[in-house]
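User: quick one, sequence for these C-alpha cells?
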C-alpha cells in the first residue's frame, strides 16, 4: 500500500462484525479509525481522522509541532480520551463512543510515558512485575499474588532491557535512561500486540535517546509488536519508523512509508556485525 501521497487515498476498510480485519495486502489490522472526531470541552482544539489504518508489525512515528494532536491520538487509541463520533476498531473489536474497554483489549496495549510514570520507591523488579496486573483474571487471583509465569516473564523482560544488575534497586536510584528501560520492560511484560510510546526519549540526552530508541525498535521487531510513537525529533523518526504520519492542528497532513528506514537499518546491521554490541548499563 503506497503512502507517498500527502494523505492516504485508499478506500476505508469496513469490517464485518465478528470477523478479523485485514488490510488489502493481507496484513492483520491492529487499529482502524474512520471518521473519528475528538473535541475537548472549553478548548478550540479538535481532531478529525477520516481514515487511519495501522497493521500488525508496523512501526509508526507520529510527528508534528506541539499541539498538533500526537499525544491525543495515542490517548484516544488507549481509551484515555473519548471520541464523539466515528468508527474505532482495535484487534477486530469495534469500540463505540463511550464504550468501556474490556480487560482483554486493554492488556493488549502497552504504554510508554515521556516522564516514565514509575513507582520510584519500588524496585525495578516490582515496577516491571506490576505490568502483569492486566493478566490477573479476578480479585481473588489478584489478592493471591502473581504466579510463576508472571515472575518468569518479568525476569525475561529485565534481561531484554539489560537491567539484571539493577533488578533489586529502587527506581529512584536510576538514571533517566535506565528508568525508561524499566518503562519499556513494563510494557513488554504485558505481552502486548500494540505499544504506544508518547515522546519516550524527549527527556534524555542524544546518545541515551539513540540507545533507548534502538532498544525499543528491536524489541518490537523481534516480537512483531506494532509500535506507534509520538516523536519531536524527525531524525529519530527516519531511523526507527517504517511509516511516518505527520499531524497539524488535529489533522493528518502526510502519511508516507519511510524507505530511508530500511536503508539505515541494513547499514546498522552491517555495522553491528563488524563491531559487536557491548552491554551499556549506564544508559
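Assistant:
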Amino acid at each position: 500500500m503506497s503512502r507517498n501521497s500527502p494523505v492516504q487515498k485508499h478506500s476505508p476498510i469496513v469490517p464485518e462484525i465478528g470477523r478479523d480485519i485485514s488490510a488489502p495486502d493481507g496484513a492483520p489490522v491492529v487499529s482502524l479509525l474512520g471518521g473519528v472526531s475528538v473535541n475537548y470541552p472549553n478548548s478550540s482544539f479538535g481532531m478529525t481522522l477520516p481514515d487511519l489504518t495501522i497493521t500488525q508489525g508496523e512501526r509508526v512515528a507520529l510527528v508534528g509541532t506541539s499541539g498538533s494532536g500526537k499525544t491525543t491520538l495515542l490517548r484516544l487509541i488507549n481509551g484515555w480520551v473519548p471520541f464523539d463520533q466515528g468508527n474505532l476498531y482495535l484487534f477486530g473489536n469495534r469500540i463505540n463512543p463511550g464504550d468501556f474497554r474490556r480487560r482483554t483489549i486493554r492488556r493488549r496495549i502497552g504504554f510508554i510515558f515521556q516522564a516514565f510514570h514509575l513507582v520510584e520507591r519500588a524496585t525495578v523488579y516490582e515496577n516491571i512485575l506490576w505490568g502483569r496486573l492486566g493478566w490477573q483474571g479476578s480479585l481473588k487471583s489478584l489478592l493471591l499474588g502473581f504466579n510463576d509465569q508472571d515472575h518468569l516473564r518479568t525476569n525475561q523482560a529485565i534481561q531484554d532491557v539489560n537491567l539484571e544488575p539493577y533488578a533489586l534497586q529502587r527506581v529512584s536510584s536510576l538514571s533517566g535512561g535506565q528508568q525508561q528501560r524499566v518503562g519499556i520492560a513494563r510494557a513488554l511484560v504485558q505481552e502486548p500486540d500494540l505499544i504506544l510510546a508518547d515522546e519516550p526519549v524527549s527527556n534524555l540526552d542524544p546518545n541515551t535517546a539513540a540507545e533507548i530508541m534502538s532498544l525499543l525498535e528491536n524489541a518490537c521487531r523481534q516480537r512483531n509488536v506494532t509500535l506507534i510513537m509520538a516523536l519531536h525529533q524527525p531524525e529519530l523518526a527516519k531511523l526507527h519508523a517504517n511509516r511516518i504520519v505527520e499531524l497539524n492542528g488535529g489533522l493528518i497532513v502526510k502519511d508516507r512509508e519511510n524507505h530511508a528506514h530500511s536503508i539505515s537499518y541494513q547499514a546498522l546491521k552491517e555495522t553491528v556485525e563488524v563491531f559487536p554490541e557491548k552491554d551499556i548499563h549506564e544508559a
